[in-house]
Design brief:
The chain is α+β, with helices and mostly antiparallel strands. The protein contains 3 helices and 8 strands, in the order αββαβαβββββ. Strand 1 and strand 2 form a beta hairpin.
């Protein structure tokens, strides 16, 4: 009986230790918007400039006010969201002009999640979990104060998440709009 009780105690402690594993994660929002200049041309406004032009074009999504025609893209063929995992220097250099984080790609990785959005509220990380090669991220935007009108024209929103480096096969993102 004592051996069985000891076995249960060890199992309970092991379960408590494994279920309390935490991953370090930080998030940063970047908005990519277009505006019309005085001649009626679309002008990219991204403050500050974070992504390379080629990465921005490769990650365009449906529903945002992007200049699809200038890039030779049909918006109806684009996905509504994109998720990009960056864990090597070449990928990092191809994506970023200036990353909002200091990143050590030997120990850390970046997930870029992009989608069309109509609010200017910040994004927060609610949960990070990793199991069987799948990294799951639960994100949500902060709720606006009552009476605050923060809707705008649809634009492409990028959420840049820096995490401890893991051996990831797949990234799943669940984004909740509040």
């Amino acid at each position: 009986m004592k051996k069985f009780a000891l076995f249960l105690l060890v199992c309970a402690l092991l379960f408590a230790f494994v279920s309390c594993v935490r991953y370090h994660a930080e998030a940063e929002d970047v908005a990519v918007r277009y505006r019309k200049d005085y001649d009626g041309n679309n002008v990219l406004t991204e403050d500050p400039i974070v992504f390379t032009e080629s990465f921005r074009i490769q990650t365009m999504v449906k529903g945002a006010l992007n200049d699809y025609e200038a890039e030779g893209l049909d918006p109806e063929t684009l996905p509504e969201t994109r998720t990009v995992l960056i864990d090597e220097k070449e990928e990092f250099d191809a994506a970023f002009v200036a990353c909002p984080f200091e990143v050590d790609l030997e120990k850390e990785m970046i997930v870029v999640y992009t989608f069309s959005f109509i609010y200017s509220r910040p994004t927060v990380i609610k949960k990070v979990s990793f199991s069987d090669g799948t990294l799951s991220l639960k994100l949500e935007n902060k709720r606006a104060k009552w009476g605050v009108k923060d809707a705008c024209m649809p634009y492409q929103r990028y959420v840049i998440i820096k995490l401890d480096k893991l051996d990831v096969d797949e990234v799943k993102v669940d984004y909740k709009i509040r």
